[in-house]
Structure formats: C-alpha cells, structure tokens
Specification:
The protein is an alpha+beta fold. Helix content is about 35%, strand content about 15%. The chain has helices spanning about 40-50, 95, 125-130, 150-160, 170-175, 185-195, 205-210, 225-230, 235-260, and strands at about 10-20, 30-35, 80, 85-90, 105, 115, 120. The longest helix is centred in the last third of the chain and has 22 residues, at about 235-260. The protein is elongated. It starts with 11 loop residues before the first strand and ends with a helix. The relative contact order is 0.12. The structure holds iron/sulfur cluster (SF4) (2 copies) and FE2/S2 (inorganic) cluster (FES). FE2/S2 (inorganic) cluster binds near residues 70 and 73.
Length: about 260
C-alpha cells in the first residue's frame, strides 16, 4: 500500500495489539479499526482506542495501556515494538507506517517484564544505571562556580553519549541481553563512558570499572553491534563498548599489580 494521498485519505486503519492483562497473564491479540486523521502518530491512535475501546469485530473491551511522557522522543517512555521494531510511539507517524501496509502491529518490548499491555517495567535499566553510578558526584547545593574546562573533542564525544534517553532499544536488539541474565547492556556502558570522561564524574571512574569488570559487565558483550543500529539517538555505542573495554583492561592490570 502507498502512503495515504491527502486528497483521498483512508476512513480507518487497523491497529493490532498484543495485550497482556498483568505481569503473569498470558498475552493475546486484539484488533482495532481507528478513524484516520492526518498527522496521527501511534500515541494519538492509542488515545483514539482509549476513547473507543471496541475491537474491530465490535466487542467492548478495556482501553489499551501504554506509557508516555515527553511526546517528542526525549524520555523513551513510549518505547514499544512497532511492526516488530523497537522505537518510540510518539515519533512513529501513521502515514509513514501505512506505506508498508494498512495494519500496524504494536507489541511490548520483550527484554523487560510487562506491567500491562504495551507498558513495560524498565526498572532493571534504571537500576543498572545506578550500578554504574551514571552521574557526576556533586555534594551539596552551594554554587561551586564553573566546572573544569574540557577539550572540544571530549565535549563532542560526551555530547554524543549524553543523547541517550534510556529507551532500551539497544537492549531489545542485543542478543546478549535477556530477561533472565545480568548483562548491563549497551546503554549503561555508554553512560559509564560519558561520566568517566567528565572531569568531576571521573572521581567515580574506578568504582564504575569495578562494576563493569564484574558479572554482567562489559566482557559479556558479544560484539554483535545490533545495539548501535537500533539506537534512535545515534549514540556511538560500539565506540563506547570498545573504550570501556580498554578502561576495564587497564583497571584489571592495575589491580593485579597492586594486589587489589
Ligand atoms: S555489541 Fe552486541 S552484544 Fe554488545 S551490547 Fe551491542 S548488541 Fe549487545
Ligand atoms: S543508547 Fe540509544 S537505544 Fe540505548 S537506551 Fe540510550 S537512546 Fe536508547
Ligand atoms: S513520550 Fe517520550 S519518547 Fe515518546
């Protein structure tokens, strides 16, 4: 099917949703015929379904549950599988999706437990960011003045890493990251690189490297490089993994010679 012509818009399009009533419940499919409006995105289609919770075969049902916040591809909360690919529902435009067919399939991400329907529990990702201490340690509320200067090439690298919105697309694509193992995955490794390169953040570098050389650390990466292709923010994840791998090696050698 080609994209809807502005002079002949379709009356409806179909959304197929993999639903799940709770964390332990079995998933099932439901289909909805949504009234077309120009410039819709997947969130506005889900809002339409919430206002008209009736399946394509006319059965009344509960509204589909999903998460969202910024609505401008910045918070990562609305990430789901759209036609099989992990991406943000707020930036997934219906007109573009309809270029590939008039049915759009929505599923929750598979690497996180499902809370309900399209709403995953991404706590593991946030806990892993805590484990790598993905922050600059500044104690107190006093104005400490400007921070230390950073060379432009470090700023440029850190800017690229700072675009991460913790959406989890890189984890969804990673063959090494599973529901049951403890691999940190690409996003926390990228954030460790971001903060290890910060003049003040580097105070925690060795502590981060203890985590990153431990179980589930950087050596669990199989270097399949799916993560970098899946990242909607073009975060240079393979560079980050290689850099943190080097930092981890230096850290382990230093530890070996210091008897640590
Ligand atoms: S390089 Fe491959 S194994 Fe490593 S984090 Fe990326 S997708 Fe996963
Ligand atoms: S690195 Fe990219 S894909 Fe991974 S969580 Fe951050 S923004 Fe999402
Ligand atoms: S709602 Fe924030 S990325 Fe979509």
């Amino acid at each position: 099917m080609i994209a809807p012509h502005p002079d002949h818009p379709p009356k409806t399009f179909r959304i197929r949703v993999r639903r799940q009533d709770g964390p332990q419940a079995k998933s099932y499919w439901q289909q909805f015929d949504v009234t077309y409006r120009p410039n819709m995105n997947v969130i506005s289609a889900l809002q339409w379904i919430a206002a008209h919770p009736r399946t394509a075969d006319g059965k009344q049902t509960s509204p589909v549950v999903w998460d969202c916040n910024c609505l401008e591809e910045v918070c990562g909360a609305c990430t789901m599988l759209i036609n099989g690919r992990a991406r943000q529902a707020c930036s997934a435009l219906i007109d573009e999706l309809m270029e590939h067919g008039s049915t759009i399939t929505l599923e929750p991400m598979t690497k996180f437990p499902v809370v309900r329907d399209l709403f995953p529990d991404r706590s593991r990702l946030f806990n892993d960011l805590k484990k790598v201490q993905g922050w600059v340690p500044i104690d107190g509320m006093l104005d400490l003045g400007p921070g230390p200067n950073e060379p432009p090439d470090t700023q440029e690298m850190r800017y690229a890493m700072s675009r991460c919105m913790s959406c989890g697309c890189c984890l969804e694509a990673c063959p090494q990251y599973t529901l049951t193992n403890h691999f940190l995955g690409a996003a926390p490794i990228g954030q460790a690189r971001l903060f290890n390169a910060h003049p003040t953040g580097a105070q925690l570098k060795e502590e981060r490297l203890v985590t990153l050389t431990g179980p589930g650390g950087v050596s669990d990466c199989g270097n399949a490089q799916n993560c970098v292709k899946a990242c909607p923010k073009d975060v240079p994840l393979t560079e980050a993994i290689a850099d943190i791998g080097r930092q981890a090696t230096v850290h382990s050698i230093k530890n070996f010679f210091s008897g640590g």
